Amino acid sequence: VTERSFIAIKPDGVARNLVGEIIARFERKGFVLVGLKQIVPTADLAKSHYAEHAERPFFGGLVSFITSGPVVAMVWEGKGVIAAARALIGATNPLASAPGTIRGDLAIDVGRNIIHGSDSVDSAKREIALWFAETELLATATPN
Ligand code: CMP
């Protein structure tokens, strides 16, 4: 099934100049970029995005980190992209991420894991609507 997923390169990924590397991996896999912008998220946006973690001890640090600099927010489209993006990204803790995955190859720290990807159809819908206006997204993706 053709799906859309919300993918964000976090401030550490941007600061480490990994934007091109990460986008290239999604492009080479065959997914299509239908939305792209760079923003410094507000605390409100960050708190809404991570609402499910609100009670966790790391929530404050997570929000201050994600709002600390530019984030590259993207929407990628393609067959099974939600699960496939999670596979490309690797496990949340980069030390547990398989080599070959983005986090497995490029990160060490769970709090600095360089990229976020939606974990389900419902969160993809919610996160895309939170980060993007409909007018910022291509209506139809051009297949590649
Ligand atoms: P992400 O996929 O963006 O979703 C929630 C984020 O919380 C996760 O990636 C991590 O960056 C972060 N996170 C999860 N567990 C911890 C932790 N124990 N300490 C700090 N950050 C964490």
Automatic annotation (TrEMBL):
SMART domains, per the entry: NDK (SM00562)
Enzyme Commission number: 2.7.4.6
Recorded family membership: Belongs to the NDK family.
Reactions listed under catalytic activity: a 2'-deoxyribonucleoside 5'-diphosphate + ATP = a 2'-deoxyribonucleoside 5'-triphosphate + ADP
CDD domains: NDPk_I (cd04413)
Gene3D superfamilies in UniProt: Nucleoside diphosphate kinase-like domain
The protein, known as: Nucleoside diphosphate kinase
Keywords, sorted A to Z: ATP-binding, Kinase, Nucleotide-binding, Transferase
Residue ranges annotated for the Nucleoside diphosphate kinase-like domain, each copy included: 2-139
Cofactor(s), names only, from the UniProt record: Mg(2+)
Organism expressing this protein natively: Heterostelium pallidum (strain ATCC 26659 / Pp 5 / PN500)
Keyword Transmembrane helix: no
UniProt cross-references to Pfam families, sorted A to Z: NDK (PF00334)
An individual GO BP term: CTP biosynthetic process
Positions with a binding annotation for ATP: 10, 58, 86, 92, 103, 113
SUPFAM superfamilies linked to this entry: Nucleoside diphosphate kinase, NDK (SSF54919)
Any one GO molecular function term: nucleoside diphosphate kinase activity
UniProt-annotated catalytic positions: 116 (pros-phosphohistidine intermediate)
First-tier enzyme category under EC: transferase
